[in-house]
Amino acid sequence: MSKRKRDREADKAPNVVNDGASQPLKATAKLQSQNQGVSSSSIKPQPSKSSANNANGGLKTSNASIQQPKSAATPKSTKIPRTENHIDVKTELPVVQIITGSYERTLHGITAKLSLNDGKLRSIYADSFLFNAHQSAVRCLALSPMPEESDQGVYLATGGSDERVNIYSLSAAPVPDTDRKGRKVPTMPTFGPNQISENPLNRELGTLVQHSSSITALHFPSRSKLLSASEDNTISVTRVRDLEVISTVKAPRPKVSGQASGDSASAGTVPSGVNDFAIHPSMKLMVSVGRGEKCMRLWNLVTGKKAGVLNFERDILQAVKEGKYSHGEGRKIRWNHSGTEFSVAFERGVVVFGQDSKPRCVLMPSTLTKVHQLVYFRTGKDHEFLACSTDDGKILFFDTAKASTATKDLPLLNPIAYMGGEKHAITKRIKDFQILDLTKHGFPGRLTIVGCSNGDISLLSLRDDEILKPETDGGFVGTASADVYSTGNRVTCLVAFAMLPALDIEGGLSEAESGLGSEIDTEDSSDNE
To answer: What is the mean pLDDT of residues 332-349?
Structure first.
């Protein structure tokens, strides 16, 4: 066969990415009142309690509410300063997948390709999906643990005010720029200012409708189980393989004094529901906080029964500025990675409890403001810190190991450092944030992804030496920041993960999709044994 004939046959060969991908997307004029997507994989109400959708359509993208980043910059190089040996190496940084939920009931997926040049953080954003996930506001998100490199699949769960939990399968690897033959993969056309990087592996799995009120919290303890909490005072355990509810625990409704009861009580006057829950790293204990309750509840996950109730004493509530007319309820709760302590966030402060459930210290912002989110993270020396976001656009860092139990009074810890605020042009309240450890991917430290109520997504770098050195007590950290991306929607929740290396175009994508299901079968079979 001559060279000219081979070239003609190569031109006639079908493109695998275009055949598997969807058609060019049309911008939607407005959000429809019904729960629908923009493609054949749209979410539809299910008649049964749990159902699985085996449709293989991808999650589609719409350019209706996507806005241009405030300052887009193309990275020049990926030169990363290694602080350990003080040498510069050229390393390809990972692609970060960011997912946000909003009051406008949209689920927005964004990929950020990072680069560092002379200590400056740069990012190229691309939209991976955007559609109506719920009939009302999206309240919480959860990601399953990262898979092995051979599986390349991640579960995403979304909960909304419409009493539904949607489950999706997301690709853990970005779409490669070139195929196996070195040819550039064509990009999807768009009328918007941003690139579109749609992955055909992103698809919907099904919808859970076992709850009778708004979903408040979601968590994947493993890749085979999902826990969901609701305002109906229940916490359900669902098997992801077939979306079957295998267990449900119910918390009692709080007894509120000083309010009407019985026939004279109007609907919604007595607050009830589970605000949040946290699972111990041993997977045997769970702690939950609820609405209208000045206590936290302990649950035995081995037996599925209540283990005890711990009331918040008056001195604890006074320390976190919970007055006589305040609810006195816990809003958020988190265990640290080692399982030696957990933190309960109230409206304006945080109380840290030890493993024995006794209070150790109180954390308060320097200015009286509301607390929205808690995150525990480790440094390179296995030293754990607690970060919390506030209403004034700051993330405060606390060293809870400095808490002293020698005195009877609860010690008050001041923040050792902070990021955000006016120096990072973040002035709106931070509804949610994530801290990713990217040191294994060649990044010199950690990446903080911040989601604000005005729809802005900010990327800030955080090095260990910035937070560990004593001269940064109460000081500003995270000097390197990338361009701000504006989603155009009011962000309510956010999750993110560092994507694995891209797969081959022709064979890797199908292996990723089949590998996800095979791992679940293995985990469930071991659980049944």
So the answer is: 95
